[in-house]
Amino acid sequence: AFGKLTFSKVGVYTFQVTEDLAHDGIDDPAGWTYDDSVETITVTVRNWNDQQQYDGVLHAYINGNNPWFT
User: Fold this and answer.
1) What is the Cα–Cα distance from 70 to 38, expressed in whole angstroms?
2) What gap in Å lies between CA 46 and CA 48, rounded to an integer?
3) If you average pLDDT over every residue of the chain, what do you get?
4) What is the mean pLDDT of residues 61-67?
5) E strands, the chain, in order
6) Is 43 a residue whose pLDDT tops 60?
7) Cβ atoms 14, 50 nearer than 8 A
8) N or C: which end of the chain has fewer CB within 10 A?
9) Which region holds residue 24: left if phi is over 0, alpha if psi is between -120 and 50, else beta?
10) Which residue has the higher pLDDT, 68 or 18?
11) Are the beta carbons of 64 and 41 closer than 8 angstroms?
12) With 80 as the cut, is the pLDDT of residue 58 above it?
């Protein structure tokens, strides 16, 4: 799980996401498998909305976020 992310300025933010194995004496859940894939998620923060209008707030657009895990 991720903590809350807050973006306070316009820009492009890139994150590398990996799976962590269970640790600290916690057993892996039955049937789970892990891989060593590295997924890239890019968040583009803009100060205009989908209609290309400045509306006084920041808008975040996410690329590469695949919510399916196998």
Assistant:
1) 14
2) 6
3) 81
4) 72
5) 11-17, 39-46, 59-63
6) yes
7) no
8) N
9) left
10) 18
11) yes
12) yes
The C-alpha atoms of residue 52 and residue 70 are separated, in whole angstroms, by 37
How distant is the alpha carbon of residue 24 from its chain centre? 25
Are the C-beta atoms of 47 and 58 separated by less than 8 Å? yes
Cβ neighbors of 16 (< 8 A, separation 6 or more) are: 38, 39, 40
Work out the pLDDT band at 24, boundaries 50, 70, 90.
Answer: low
Q: State both tokens at 34.
A: 């892990």
Query: Average pLDDT in the 22-40 region?
Result: 75
Strand 59-63 and strand 39-46: the pairing is antiparallel
Task: Give the position of tokens 């209008």.
Answer: 53
Rounded to whole angstroms, how far apart are CA atoms 62 and 43?
5
User: What pLDDT is recorded for position 46?
Assistant: 93
Q: Residue written as tokens 């205009």? A: 48
